[in-house]
Amino acid sequence: MNTFAKTLVNKAKSPSARLRGFLILGFLSLVWGTSFILIKKSLEVYSPVQVALLRLGLSGLAFLPLFLYQIRKIDWKRWHFFVLVGLCGSGIPAFLFAFAQMHISSSVAGILNSLTPLFTLLIGIIIFRAKLIWAIVLGVLLGLAGAAMLILFSSGSNFQGDIGYSLLIILAAMCYATSTNIVGNKLRDVKSLIVSTFAFASVGIPSFLLLITTTDFLHVLTTHPQGLIGLGYVGFLALVGTVLATIIFFKLIQDTNPVFASTVAYIMPIVALLWGLLDGETIGLYHLLGMGLILLGVYLSRK
């Protein structure tokens, strides 16, 4: 193990680094826990293709000045890894979620999205030769069980939907897992801001051009009664849920490990449950047990 790797390990094991990791995970869960409803609301105005292209395009435009500023600092020998992170971490899933949520319930999407840490673990072991740590394996399985329990016993759960579109969410989870492993194994020594800048500029700018030239986005924006409101939903989703959250997420991967960072998918159902509690819903024993399993799983995944 070289000096750089030893420094990363020592920093990751310090109490302050561990606490910071859990706090960041909670913040990302809160931000991304709202993404499903934002996608649902924006689809009431724009088509799935427009929502995906707009989300990616706004993210790319936000990163463009940083891309031009950081262009000399980019390691162009690893350009393919940056592009893969952009495609798998946001580009492809943006379309998959937009199309899938036209046909499946949010409960189904939540359960299937919770497969991300499991896929992260499997891809890390099979493709990236990650070390098999049984505490992490147990953490992943416990977290998945807890997330499924929370969603299954939620009062508003609705599991209707086409199984074919459910497969799109599974594919999106695999994409997220691939991107997370690339950042954690191939780009760990690159600043998270540079990773995000290259990844989103390479995907976002072409997406914005396609949005303007191949769809009727401008017509919908100017003629639909909710055009500006829909743009606001996607704008928040892009700038906060994609740009800001992704930079923080990549940094979390580099400071901890890919599997732990991906457990954000487990905490998102807890966020949804807490929002429901504020809205007058009740929490039962199964909910508490599910949250306990998730928190234990997240803790073990940090090993």
Biggest sheet character? none
What's the overall average pLDDT, rounded?
84
SS summary, helix count: 15
Q: Total domains, how many?
A: 1
Query: Percent of residues in helical segments?
Result: over 70%
Taking pLDDT < 50 over at least 5 consecutive residues as the criterion, the unreliable ranges are 1-9
Summing up helix and strand content along with how strands pair, one would put the structural category as: mainly alpha
Description:
This protein has 15 helices and no strands. The protein is 79% helix and 0% strand. The longest helix is centred in the C-terminal third of the chain and has 29 residues, at 227-255. Mean pLDDT is 84; it is low at 1-9. The chain has one domain (15-301). The radius of gyration is 19 Å and the shape is globular. With 303 residues, it is mainly α.
Quick structural gist:
It is built from 15 helices and no strands.
Task: Give me some keywords for this one.
303 residues, disordered N terminus, mainly alpha, globular, 15 helices
Record the SSE blueprint.
Blueprint (H helix, E strand, L loop, with lengths): L2 H11 L1 H18 L2 H8 L5 H23 L8 H22 L5 H8 L2 H11 L7 H19 L10 H24 L5 H23 L2 H7 L3 H29 L2 H5 L1 H15 L6 H17 L2
Helix pairs in contact: 2-12, 2-14, 3-12, 4-5, 4-10, 4-12, 5-9, 5-10, 6-8, 6-9, 7-9, 8-14, 8-15, 10-12, 11-12, 14-15
